[in-house]
Amino acid sequence: MPHALASDGLLIDHFPAAQRSLRIAFVSETYPPEVNGVATTVARIVQGMHARHHEVQLIRPRQDRLDAAARQARYDEVLLRSLPIPRYPDLRMGVPSKRALVQLWSRRRPDVVHIATEGALGWSALQAALHLKLPVCSDFRTNFHAYSTHYGLGWLRKPIMGYLRKFHNRCACTMVPTDALRRELQADGFQKLTVVSRGVDTELFHPSRRSAALRESWGLNEQDLLVGYVGRLAQEKNLGTLLTAFEALRRDMPRALLLLVGDGPMRAELQARCPDALFAGQRRGEDLAAHYASVDLFLFPSLTETFGNVTTEAMASGLPLVAFDHAAAAQLVHSGHNGLLAAAGDVDAFVAASRLLAGDAEQRQRLGRAAFATAQALGWDGVLARFEGVLHGVITAAERSAEAEFGGLARPAA
């Protein structure tokens, strides 16, 4: 099989077009109808692997009332015990389940186990896969170690990072969405990293979804400025900077309105600080796409993303955006061409960029058109092919290792 080894000597980067169908056990602690970037991305990859004729077994926590509406007969779903997540009543987390997974995979061995999240269920899956000598790879999708500083628990950063490093270094490889994150984690002692980016649904998220009726329902005409944010309403999203920027630009444009799409524990606090903001709650599908496209300026102040799907969704919707030079924005936004970037953590620069675009409709339109053009090259086909190729590389490496071990054992003594 033609291949090229990565710097760690393990991962295979180039593959022939035709590859064998795989049995993939995909483990995730979040999945739609939960609304978050990890759930959305995991679902797209699971469905994409199924569409590419692989046998997918999805293992996730039971979501009780959500499951009846969510489950469809597309692939095998294994629902395991779960517990509610504090402060997020609609979300649940997995519990230790090694024994159940060992039994499950002993009856029918997958070719590879892929773990999307590092919680109790993910750790159980890792232990079960290692116990059964199954090839296993993982995703690094959430900066849990960075979240600790936003909840007065900065002292937890080192132990959390230690756990994550131990988790991922026991996998055959860990997929990360950007090269910047790969370098950052490598400096922290993470090994066997490979970049698999993320795509965006350019048919769903599109400027044509803009809705005059929706804007009218908010009391806006086409000349009024609507500033948008999409994401969890939580401390780790740096929403204080969002409000600071909006309050500054509103002094220049008193009729401007702020739309927040999403929910979370900070909602009441944000409503108290900005009582006339539009709180749309969680939105999905075409409704979410219409909310994006009906915005005039998108602000995304988060500094804790591993990628930030909302960045690409906003760009595909044709929105000019202001973000920090971080995660997906650092990779995709060329400041002054298809958006504006502020240096990571520079609140004054973020506020200044927001005021600049708020007051310049012509520049907003120019940046929005360029953002849309950038997003058109971010479809899912290439991402799925890359993901599929990495799985094949992990399996091939495991097979060669097993052959070498077996060969050594089988060789007669001299």
From TrEMBL:
InterPro entries: Glyco_trans_4-like_N, Glycosyltransferase_grp1. Keywords: Transferase. Residues 35-203 form the Glycosyltransferase subfamily 4-like N-terminal domain. The keyword Transferase applies. One of its GO terms (molecular function) is glycosyltransferase activity. CDD domains: GT4-like. It holds the Pfam family Glyco_trans_1_4. PANTHER family: SULFOQUINOVOSYL TRANSFERASE SQD2. This is Glycosyltransferase. The lineage of its organism: Bacteria, Pseudomonadati, Pseudomonadota, Betaproteobacteria, Burkholderiales.
